[in-house]
Amino acid sequence: xxxxxxxxxxxxxxxxxxxxxxxxxxxxxxxxxxxxxxxxxxxxxxxxxxxxxxxxxxxxxxxxxxxxxxxxxxxxxxxxxxxxxxxxxxxxxxxxxxxxxxxxxxxxxxxxxxxxxxxxxxxxxxxxxxxxxxxxxxxxxxxxxxxxxxxxxxxxxxxxxxxxxxxxxxxxxxxxxxxxxxxxxxxxxxxxxxxxxxxxxxxxxxxxxxxxxxxxxxxxxxxxxxxxxxxxxxxxxxxxxxxxxxxxxxxxxxxxxxxxxxxxxxxxxxxxxxxxxx
Length: 278
Hints:
Blueprint: H1 12-39, H2 44-68, H3 80-100, H4 103-109, H5 114-119, H6 125-154, H7 165-185, H8 191-207, H9 222-226, H10 229-242, H11 247-277
């Protein structure tokens, strides 16, 4: 007979499983944080200096020319810099997530085999996946917060609700991090990442509403933009920053981002299990 936990009347092994999962996920997160603690200086430019330079160049530099033309009417009457900044906030989440979910993940399977070492301990596949994604979420929060502080310093936030754009950026990033993590877990070399960034990440950065309203895209391309996580993240961040977010529209955007995250997590669990057990 199997031992029974008195308080729950469930087998001890089953009762302890959620606790082991939570402990494993925490340990994976702590490992990622420890590694970052040693290499954080290398991310200073992308985290802090890059937003300042990009906003100065695109928002202040290019924006001064846009504001002088007739295009300002299509931006809702705000300056181009104020229109652009929240879009860049969401797009920055996409780019950070893609970076954190490609070479790092494949390296854990192919180069240093860190994930195999974790799997050799009591840490479960779910614990590894959740711990990794939790760390990506933490990195996204750090990057988005730094970006928002820069926006605030430049005066590119038109509404107090704009601070919630940090969460929109994190959700946008996670909508990419989960499926890209699953994709990376199945790769044997980094050739697939070149395709990913060249044909997916870069076009989405340019044509998902970050730099101009998607209504200005050709009618055939517009529905494709609506299906992308970037468009929905940009729409939430911009609506919050400008104070124009429609509650019903926000629910639709959140539902799409949540669907991408849920499907990505499920795919990642399958991909990690296959790579760790074969």
